[in-house]
Amino acid sequence: MRTRHVNLLITLIAVVLFSFSCFCISRMTQTIEKKVNTSDTNETMFDAFEVLKFFFPHLRKVDRIYPDVIMGREKTGVTFALGISTVNRGNYSYLKQTLTSLLSRMTLPEEKDSVVIVSIADSNENYVKSVVDMITKKFKRQVTSGSLEVISIPAYFYPNISHAAGSTDDSEKLESWRIKQVLDFCFLMLYAQPKAMYYLQLEDDIIANKMYLTKITDFVHNITSNNWLYIEFSVLGFIGKLFKSEDLTDFVHFFLMFYKDKPVDLLLGDIFLVKMCTPGEALEKCIERNKHIRIRYKPSLFQHVGIQSSYPGREQYFKVSVLTCSCVIHKVS
Known about the structure:
The chain is 44% helix and 18% strand. The protein is globular, with a radius of gyration of 20 Å. It is of the alpha/beta class. Helix 1 (2-35) packs across helix 11 (248-257) and helix 9 (170-192) runs antiparallel to helix 11 (248-257). It has an eight-stranded mixed β-sheet, sandwiched between helices.
C-alpha cells in the first residue's frame, strides 16, 4: 500500500511538472513568434531550437541555436523523416550498411517523399570527416536529390557533463553516455520536426526489412483512429518508433525534464503513463485500456546488427525473432 501511494505521488508530481513546463514553453514560444514574422523554413527551424534555452541556461547566451548542416538541401514538406544519430565506435562502423539498407529498400516515390537525416553526435573531427566522405562517395544521388542530409550537433549544445565523462568510475561514465544519448535524440527530433508529417527514430547499426516503408505507410493509413501516441515497428529500445511530428515537441520537453534520470526508451514508457494513465491505475490495466494509443506492429521491421556498442568497450548481441517479434539478448559485456 505504501509503495502504491509513493508511485501515485510520483505520477502526480510528474504530471504537474510536465504541465507547468508546457505552459512556460508555450508562453516563450508565443513571444518568439511575435518577434519573428516570417514563413521562411530556416526561421521555423531556428525557432524550434529556442525551447532548449528553457532547459539549459548556458544556451541563453547563444544568439541562434542550430546544427552544423554539412550536407543536404534541407528538404521539407515530406511524409516521413527518418532520424539516425551516429557516434564514433572506434574501428567499427555500421552506418554505411544501415544507410544502404534503408535507401535501397525504398521505392523511388517513397524516397522522393522522405528525408533521411544522419546526425553526427560526435566532436571528433576525423570521424565527422569520415562520415561526410563516405556519404559523399556512396550516396551522392540521394544527397543531391535532398533525400539524405547530414548534420552535426554543435559542441556548445551540451551542458557540463564532462566530470562524469572524464571519471575513472565505470558507472559514472555509463551515466554520462546515457545522458548524452538522450540529448542527442532530442536535438535530432527538434531538427526533424518541421520537415515531415511523421518521424521515424532509427539508429546507426540496424538493417531494414524489404518494403519496410511501404508496410509502415499502409499500416498507418489503415489505423482507424488518429489518436495514437506512437507506433512501435521494433521492440528493441528506441529503434523503429514512429511519432506524429506535431507531437515531437511534447516528447522532447518530457525527455529534457528527466534526461538525467533514465535512458530514453524508459522515458518513452514514462510519458505514456503520465499522459494516458489514471493516477493509481495498474499499468497492465492502463495499457489494455489504451492499446489503440500505444500500438505495436508485428513482426519487427528492423533488425539490430551492431555488436560494438556506441558505449566504448561494450559489446552487445541483440536480436529480434522475426516470427515472434520478441527480443533475444545473447550477451552483453
